Input
Amino acid sequence: MISLILDSHVLIWAVDTPAKIPATSMLAMRDPAVKRFVSAATIWEIAIKFGNGRLPLSLPYRLWIDKAIRDLVLDILPITLDHAEFQSGLPFHHRDPFDRLLASQSLVEGIPLISIDVAFDAYGVNRIWN
Output
């Protein structure tokens, strides 16, 4: 089975402004044969940014994240010791700790990441954005 991890902006756009996502990426995200993951780190990142007023969402946070998980049929990818250990050895191509963890999860699990962020390319992440 093909799997994908959604970056935080992709999750937000998929729920609130899907036109920002290229058609091919959106089709992959909607394909029932694709297993879609959202990282626990992404859930936390969005909650932090919503809570401090830096991220407006179309609904209150809990309603919004529940809707996103349900509508996009997402599985939550937990943060494991392997992910944390791998992240600790990554070079600092990207300073954002949430994105560094996503890179680690993508690389450790061998799952492509849907993201517009080209900084992931420096890590050798299989990044999809088309």
Q: What stands out?
A: The chain is about 45% helix and 15% strand.
